[in-house]
Amino acid sequence: MRFNYFLSAGLLCLLASCAPQSTIYIVRHAERANDSDTTSLSAAGLQRAERLSQRLAGLPLDSIFVTPYTRTRQTAAPTARSKGLPLTQYAVKPVTEIAERVRRFRGKSALIVGHSNTVLEIARALGTSPSIREIRHTDYQYLLILRFRQPSSGQPRVTLREDTY
Q: Which keywords has UniProt assigned to this entry (predicted)?
């Protein structure tokens, strides 16, 4: 009887740890050339885009999401090339649309490239509470890493790691 209890408890622990895990990376586009809405990245921004690609090089990635703006596509381009992935466009607002889309991932990973006024909103819409209160006009370095463990029943467990690149 006691053996069956421990066997059952062990199986439950094993099943819980085997629940599919999704990882979502969220960044703001890299440095822009000027303040125009249609601007490209600056030379520093292009270098940062390469650093992002290098930072994600050894990690699995299934999808890359960008807004309609050139600077988000340019930020994601080196990563897309290295992973052999297309860029999938999403609407800037409402952020709940992209959040719902990636929330349905099961065991997959994605990069979302957003804007200073959407990165934290997306993270919050995905159930996290970033300690970063604001992404200022001059802040380009943040990398938010969200991990979702999808149990077969109940709410997904979400963890957030705030990093830079």
A: Signal
